[in-house]
Amino acid sequence: MLHATMLPPMRKRQRRTEGTEGPRYGVEVKFPDVRLYLVEKKMGATRRGFLAQLARAKGFLVEDVLSERVTHVVSEQNQAQELWQWLRRQALNNLPTLHVLDIGWFTDSMREGRPVTLEARHHIQDILPEASTHLPVVVLSRYACQRRTSTENHNEIFTDAFEVMAESYEFSQCDGQCLAFRRAASVLKSVPWPVERLGAATRLPCLGEHTRAVMEEILQCGRSFEVEKILCNDRYQRLKLFTSVFGVGPKTAEKWHRGGLRTLNDALEDPGVELNSMQKAGFRHHGDISRAVSRAEALALGEILHQAALGISAHAVLVLTGGFRRGKEFGHDVDFLLSTPEQGKEETLLLSLVDSLRRQGILLYCDHHPSTFDINNLPGVSFEAMDHFAKSFLILRLEDRQVEGGVQRPEGQHDGRSWRAVRVDVVAPPMERYAFTLLGWTGSRQFERDLRRFARKEKRMLLDNHGLWDKTKKEFLPAEREEDIFAHLGLEYLEPQLRNA
Ligand code: CTP
Ligand code: MN
Ligand code: MN
């Protein structure tokens, strides 16, 4: 029955032209930017005809013949390698921009009656990155929350340079350019092999003229002269040095630079410089806390905090977040989330924890921020703002004997101390906000930024560390686990290890 109504026009059309096979029977083209091609192999001619018919009835353009006009190739049950070999043989110029998709994307789109947002799981990846004359094909989203970014960075040569550029723009308060370089670095971190030709970058999102120019220099000369110039720049060097002190931001650093200060000692000795208590602690422990914290040290601190928390309440929950949760081996601090199922007790718990650390004699510094959380003020309008939960920024003393292999020391030096200072952040949300805070504090910063941007621009939702607000439904969406938040956003769940954007 189905076949009888469908096959004749198919055959007629195939004979007639190679042209567009758009919707017929009076159905309008709803998605002119999407041109589908269904791979017949494995799918079979009958099913292919049926699916094409279905898509056309829903307003999709379906091409019978594979040409450069096709934007989305859909395949069912074909081996990726075989499929890509076949695609390369077609010598299409648009191969690098072609979306090669699994049938799952097609069926989802049919169900929704529109082309659904492309996700990593939809793509059939080209397995041979160095394959033939064509460039490695990875389809990368503009949003970091739709890219898989492990800790393995194959493009450090570019991302390090971009980081210097971003920092230099940050020092000059050029937020737009700073963000452009941070975005570009984040995209390159998710490319699973070294980019070796600029051509390979043409289809990567978020790479503008300036970022490409820096890449081109590096590809041609092995280094970027623009970046080297910045690295030699006096002002850059001083701002970099001053901001390496805990508590000194770009504004203070700029002021010191303008005042003619050159070294950290200048800042300590200048009678005109009034240090606040955070900066004093920053100077006192500068050597230690500007040195990376290892995973072994982070785990040792986790153990210490966990014991202290359990000593206060048997219900205390302590979770490692930040870079270490993402699988990093080193970090600039250690981040923890502390909570308790006892409603309204989380802030007291945090204060008691800090107190316990003080009594143990390992609290070197504490900057506590009481909770200003008020459910009625949600969601916040600002996306970058700190959350309103109680939190403490600490410096703790970590003993050699508490860490497997001892604490990190500057290479070849032993100053006779048996301990080091480490920066530790602890945030204490109420348990019902746990998932949002965990997601927010796991980072990376770029990942969080793009999650929020994605929610706002693509889903009309507002996300922050407190909650998720649906502007259409005018309601908060509940979440017990991070997975719930990804699901609300229609995003594929990404493990923390893949959020190193
Ligand atoms: N964060 C936050 N509010 C703060 C401080 C941090 O939401 N007041 C979030 C940041 O957005 C980030 C995460 O906590 O996503 C961890 O921050 P940070 O420790 O600065 O960065 P890491 O990714 O852990 O990197 P590193 O290993 O260098 O510490
Ligand atoms: Mn951290
Ligand atoms: Mn931190």
TrEMBL record:
Belongs to the DNA polymerase type-X family. InterPro entries: BRCT_dom, BRCT_dom_sf, DNA-dir_DNA_pol_X, DNA/RNApol_mu, DNA_pol-X_BS, DNA_pol_B_palm_palm, DNA_pol_lambd_fingers_domain, DNA_pol_lamdba_lyase_dom_sf. Gap-filling polymerase involved in repair of DNA double-strand breaks by non-homologous end joining (NHEJ). GO terms for biological process: DNA modification; double-strand break repair via nonhomologous end joining. This is DNA-directed DNA/RNA polymerase mu. SUPFAM superfamilies: BRCT domain, DNA polymerase beta, N-terminal domain-like, Nucleotidyltransferase, PsbU/PolX domain-like. It catalyses: DNA(n) + a 2'-deoxyribonucleoside 5'-triphosphate = DNA(n+1) + diphosphate. Its EC number is 2.7.7.7. The gene is dntt. It is found in: Nucleus. It comes from the Eukaryota.
